[in-house]
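Q: Please design a sequence for this.
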């Protein structure tokens, strides 16, 4: 028969492994959400034209 303290430690380790996996998934989700977005070429052209227009004024 296994020692009760060993069984408790195994249960605690399993719980901690699940918690680490859950936290890793959440962190990866936050990283995906905060990833820099690609700039739209149309926006870049519009900003460039506005700068030229303002400079000429």
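A: Design:
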């Amino acid at each position: 028969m296994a020692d009760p303290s060993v069984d408790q430690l195994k249960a605690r380790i399993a719980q901690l492994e699940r918690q680490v996996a859950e936290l890793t998934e959440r962190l990866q989700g936050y990283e995906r959400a905060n990833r820099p977005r690609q700039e739209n070429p149309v926006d870049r052209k519009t900003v460039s034209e506005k700068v030229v227009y303002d400079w000429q004024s």
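Q: Thanks. Anything notable?
A: DSSP finds two helices and no strands in the chain. Helices lie at 4-33, 41-56.
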